[in-house]
Amino acid sequence: MRHIFIINPLAGQKGRQRKTEDAIRNAGRKLRLEPEIYRTTHAGDGERFARQVCEESEGKEALRFYACGGDGLLNEVINGVYGFSNAEVGCVPLGTGNDYVRNYGLPEDFLDIEAQLSASAAESDVICYTVQTKGKKEAPRCCINMFNIGFDCNVVDQTARAKNWPLIKGSAAYLLSVAIILIKKKGANLKVCYEDGSVFDGKLLLIAVANGCFCGGGVKGVPLAKTDDGKMDVSLVRNVSRRTFIRMFPKYAKGIHLSEPSLSHVIDYRKCDRLEIFANGSPMRLCTDGEITDARQVSFEIAPKAIRFLVPKGAGSRQNGRAKGE
């Protein structure tokens, strides 16, 4: 089995790449393994490299890829290995949000390289999607954690800019961005077509289409999502007032908002296999595992147990943010 660490040199704090590479080599020597290191050079390079290795190794050897970066790099590697039965994927979370790994434990549970090299593989669904923009359909892709449109997407977009401001880092950048977007109260105008034939058509605050629970660095906005249940969770929040949102946000962030009776008329939460969303008017801003693009139309479909994800020993006891058995 080959162990291949794909590192985004731009992820995390300065000097983090060198420390990660040293830890990889030290763990390899201790476990008598020879892990490989590949440094990405541009956006999309992780996907290209992973696919190339899978194609060259198909039917010959087993592969374990470890995405060392944020959710964006993990998304690249997932798209690179999707469809190859000889590949498994892990994540060493060096980014800002690190949201997919939170479905299995805390991000720090995934920083132990020795534990990563001896991790167990868990089956995970992915959401396959096709985007149409300017009358042209793009090639199908997949998402392992979450899509956000409306408020959440706008916050991610604002956070990316806020992180470049002096003294604004990490969670502070996210919370400041929430406040800025709340003042603007910018949501989305969409037509949402569910598989049962029902339709939502109009303005909304946000919609999340999810395989995992978390976005925005630990906001548990889709609390019933499970990474291996063969369903995607769709959470639509209607166009509420600022006062209602301020009252709702602390519970939304903790993932306890669905049990609040006063919010039952605000949130439409479902599990489904397929979904279509159309932009009314200008293109929608679509956030896919933290990366933002524009789209006129998006079609989603669940692909059950399509990826084998590496979970270090001990981290699995916190699957989906809950202790096993809850």
TrEMBL record:
The keyword Glycosyltransferase does not apply. Residues 1-135 form the DAGKc domain. GO terms for cellular component: plasma membrane. Its cofactor is Mg(2+). SMART domains: DAGKc. Signal peptide: none annotated. GO terms for biological process: phospholipid biosynthetic process. GO terms for molecular function: ATP binding; kinase activity; metal ion binding. The keyword Nucleotide-binding applies. It holds the Pfam family DAGK_cat. Keywords: ATP-binding, Kinase, Lipid biosynthesis, Lipid metabolism, Magnesium, Metal-binding, Nucleotide-binding, Phospholipid biosynthesis, Phospholipid metabolism, Transferase. It comes from the Bacteria. Belongs to the diacylglycerol/lipid kinase family. This is YegS/Rv2252/BmrU family lipid kinase. It comes from Zhenpiania hominis.
